[in-house]
Amino acid sequence: MTVPGRRSSNVTRLLRHGFTDPSAAERLLDLPDMSSARTDPVLLDALGATADPDLALRGLVRLVEAQDPAERQSLLDTLITAKPLRDRLLGVLGASEALGDHLARHPRDWQALVTYEATDLHPGVADFERGLADAIDPVTLRIAYRRCLLSIAARDVCGTTDVAQTAAELADLATATLRAALAMARSAAPADAAQCRLAVIAMGKCGGHELNYVSDVDVIFVGEPVEGADESKAIQAATRLASHLMRICSETTVEGTIWPVDANLRPEGRNGPLVRTLSSHFAYYQRWAKTWEFQALLKARPVAGDLALGEDYIEGVSPLVWQAAERENFVGDVQKMRRRVVDNIPVAQVERELKLGPGGLRDVEFAVQLLQLVHGRSDATLHSGTTLEALRALAHGGYVGRADAAQLDQAYRFLRAMEHRIQLYRLRRTHLVPEDEADLRRLGRSLGLRTDPVAELNKEWKRHASVVRRLHEKLFYRPLLDAVAQLTPGETRLSPEAARQRLEALGYADPGAALRHLEALSSGVTRKAAIQRTLLPVLLGWFADSADPDAGLLGFRKVSDALGKTPWYLRLLRDEGAAAENLARVLSAGRLAPDLLLRAPEAVALLGDPEGLAPRGREALEQEVLAAVGRADTAEAAVAAARGVRRRELFRTAAADLIGSYGTEDSPAEADPGELVDRVGNAVTDLNAATISGALRAAVRAQWGDALPTRFAVIGMGRFGGHEQSYGSDADVLFVHEPREGEDEQEATRAANRVVEEMRRLLELPTADPPLLIDADLRPEGKSGPVVRTLASYEAYYRRWSLVWESQALLRAEPMAGDADLGRRFIDLVDPLRYPAEGLGDDAVLEIRRLKARMESERLPRGADPTLHTKLGRGGLSDVEWTVQLFQMRHGWAEPGLRTTRTREALAATHAAGLISTEDAQILDEAWVLATRVRNGVMLVRGRAGDTFPSGGRELAAVGRYLGYGPGHVGDMLDDYRRITRRARAVVEVLFYGA
C-alpha cells in the first residue's frame, strides 16, 4: 500500500517524466506483475523518453500480462538490463497503439527486437523475405508482416534510421510481401502458374523506394505466355494469379489487413484489363497515354514475379518516359497538373493536409518529377524514382539551386517524418495532422520536441510548409535567372538549351525571347537587378499559370522599363504581397489591361492598395473629371484630361474583373459571376457618364463660357442607359435641349447641335487613350432625323409618330449628363410610352415578335455560328433582353419593380411578380450573365470587341481561363455555353413567342 506522502512524491516524479495521467500510471506500476521493475529508475527514465509515456506503460503492462507466467520476469529482466531492447520496445509502445495491440496478441514477438547487430540495422529485401518465410496463408502472412514492421518502427523511433531509410525499408518489406503473396497464389493454382509468366511492377511510393507505414501499394501487372502456351489463356491465368495476390494482401482477416494493392495506374485505369502483355502495354503508351501516366512511370520498378519480364517492361517504357516532354500536349498537361488538387479536400481539412494541402508533400514531389521529365531526356543522372535522390541529382546538375534543394530536402524530410508518425500510431492511412491535444503532444514528442511539444510542432510544421510553398515555384525559375545573370563564378548552371527546354515545358511559346527578357531584367549588380531576381521566380510561375505566359513576361519587362527608375515601383512589388501577383495576373490575361497600363504605367500602384480596385462611383468620378476640365486651358486639353481619367478607371475595372475571375493564392475567384458582370457594367457606365459630362462642360465652356443659350441633357440608351456596358461599348444616347427664357429657339438649336459636334470631335480625337464613340441612332426617325431635339419636339413626335420599337428602345432611357431637371422631365415624358396603361395591345406584341424574328434572320453575320454568337445567337443577349422587355411593356404599368433600365433587375422583378417561374428566371439569368461575360472576356483577351468566341487557340484558352475553365477544358466551355443558351432559347420560345 502506498502511503500519502510517498504517493505525492511518486505523482510528481511521474509528471516530471512526461506522464499526463500519473494516477493511472501509479496504479499500473503497483500491479503485482510489475513489482520487480516499478522502483527501477532506468525503466522510468526509458518510459519518460518515449513519445507517450502513458501509452508506453499501458502497452508494456499488457505485454507482460500476455506472457506465460514463467516468462514474465525474463521479459522484465531483459528490459532492465538490455538498453537496446529497452529503447526499441518502449519506443514502439509509446509511438504505436496498433503495434502494442499486435504484441499483446502475439506476446513472443518482442524477441524480434532483442537482436542488435550490424546486419540488423539496415535489412534489405532478402532479410524481409526470410522474416516472412514461415507464412503459409494470409493470416500468418499478416502476423509475420507486422513482426517485420515492428523492427522497422523500432529503428525509426530510436533514430537508428532516418526518414528516407525507413521509407526504403518499408518499400523493401512491401516487395517481400508481394513476393510471398504471389508465391501463395501460385501454389494455390499451379495450373495457372504453369501457363504464364507474370511480373509485378511497383509504382508510386513503393516503386520509388519511399513508402509510408500505411499506404496503397500501387502496381502494374505484365503477363506473357510460357513457350507453347496460348496467349489468351495465359493472360487469363495471369489475371487470376494477380487478382489472388491482391486479395491476399488487401482482404480483412482476423489479423486485419496489410494494405490495399492498387492497380489503377495501369493503362485505361479501372476500365482496362488487369494484366496486359508487353506489346499491349507498349502500344497503349505509344498511342494513348497521357502525360500524367509517364510521370507515374518515373517510379516504375519490377519487384515480384518474373523479374526478367519486368526488366523488359522497364526497358520498353523508359524511352517513352523521357520523351514525354516533347509531346505536343505536354505544356497543357503540365498546366493542368500544376493546378493544385485541393478541390476534393473538405474546406475544414485543407490546412491540416500534409500531402495535398498548400506547402505539402505533393508540391515537392510534383516539382521534382516535372523537372526530371523536362531535363531527364538529356541527362541520365536524373533517372531516379526516389524524390530525395532525384532532388540531389537536380541540384548537382545545376537544374535546381543548391541552397533551395537543401531547404526543400530538410522540409520534405520533416513533413514525411510527421506523416510516418501520424500513421504509425494506429497504422491507418491518413495524411491529416490531428487536432486533439494529446495526439499533437505525442506527435511532437516523437519528433524530438520536448519543451512544449504542441507549440513547437505547430511552429516547425508551419515553417517547413512555408518553405515548400515559397520554393516549389522558385525551383523552376531561379536556375533560369542564374543561367542568364551569371553572378556566381564556378556555380553549376543550366545550359542555354536546358533553360529553353524548361521554359517550353512551362508554356512559353518563344523561350528565346523569354530568356532575353530575363537577362535584361535581372543581369547586373544593381539593387534594381537584385530585387528583380527576387521577384521573377515567383512572377514567372504566375505567368506560366496563365494562357499566355510570353505576353505576361513581355508586359512586365515593358512596365519595368517604364517605371524601373522610380523609387516606389519595385518596392511596391517586393513589399506588398498582393501587388506582384495582381500584376502578373493582369499582364498575362490578355491585351486590354496591359495596353491600358502601359499608356500610364504609374497605375500599377492601384494593384497594391487593398481598396485600389474598388469602383469609385459616379459622383466621385464626375467631381474629378470636372475639376480636371476646369483646370485645362483648352477644350482639347480638358477632354484629354477626362479621357486620361477614363483610361485609368478602365484599367482599374479590368484589373478588378481579371483578379476576381482568376482569384489569387490568398483569395478564391469570385463565386458569383453575376456580381462580376454587374460590377463591370456599373463601373464602365459610371466612368463613361463622367467622361461625357466632362466633354459637355469643355464643349460649352470653349464657345459660350458657362451660359449655353439652351438647357441641354444627354439621355443614356441601350447598354449605356441599362448600366450594362462592356469595355468596348459605344455610348448610345439621345440629346435633348430646351431654350432658356428669352432665347431664340433656332439659335438655341444651332448651339445645341454645335455642342454635340464638338463633344463628338473631342471624344474621338486620336490620342493614346481609348476613344469613346457616341451613337445617337436610336433617336426619332433614326439617322434621318435631327441629332438634337427640343423637349417639345420629342413630345410632338412621340404623340403622333412613335413606333413600337421606339417605345421598346426607351425602356433603357436614363439621364446621364447635363441639366438634371430637363433629364427628369424627359423621363416623365417617355414613361407612358414605355409602360403603356393597361399594357401592350395584341397588335403591338405581334409587331415586336415580327421585328425580333426579322432581326434574327437578317442581322446575324454571314458565316457566324448561331449557337456561339453572344448577341444575336440562340439564347444570347438579344433573346433574353427582348423577352424581359416584352414583360416590362406589358406589365410595367402595374408592377413598379419592372420600371428599371437594367435587364437583371427587371428579370428579378418579373419573377417576384409571379409572371415567370423560378426555373425560367434562373435559366434566362444564367444565359444572359454568361453571354455578357464572354463578351467581356473577348474584349479583355483580344483588346477589341467581339460577339463570338475567338478562333485562335491561345485566345480561346484565355477566355476559358477568364470564365473559370482550367487548361485543356476549352471544349467543356463551348459545350457548356451551347447547353446553357439552348435551355434559354427554349424558355424564350415559350415566354416571348408564345410557343
Descriptive report:
The structure is a single chain. The chain is mainly α and 995 residues long. The strands form 2 sheets. Strands 1, 2, 3, 4 and 5 form a 5-stranded mixed beta sheet that branches. Strands 6, 7, 8, 9 and 10 form a 5-stranded mixed beta sheet that branches. α14 (231-250) links the parallel β2 and β3 (261-262). The longest helix has 33 residues, at 453-485. The protein starts with a helix and ends with a helix. The model has no long low-confidence stretch (mean pLDDT 90).
Which helices and strands, and how do they pair?
Layout lengths: L3 H13 L5 H8 L11 H8 L4 H14 L2 H13 L1 H13 L1 H9 L12 H4 L3 H7 L6 H21 L4 H26 L1 H6 E7 L1 H4 L9 E9 L5 H20 L10 E2 L12 E2 L1 H10 L3 H7 L3 E5 L1 H16 L7 H9 L22 H15 L11 H10 L5 H25 L10 H10 L6 H33 L10 H10 L5 H12 L4 H18 L4 H15 L5 H7 L1 H12 L3 H8 L18 H14 L3 H28 L10 H32 L5 E7 L1 H4 L9 E9 L5 H19 L10 E2 L12 E3 H10 L3 H6 L4 E5 L1 H15 L7 H17 L18 H15 L11 H10 L5 H25 L10 H10 L7 H22 L4
Parallel strand pairs: 2-3, 2-4, 7-8, 7-9
Antiparallel strand pairs: 1-2, 1-5, 6-7, 6-10
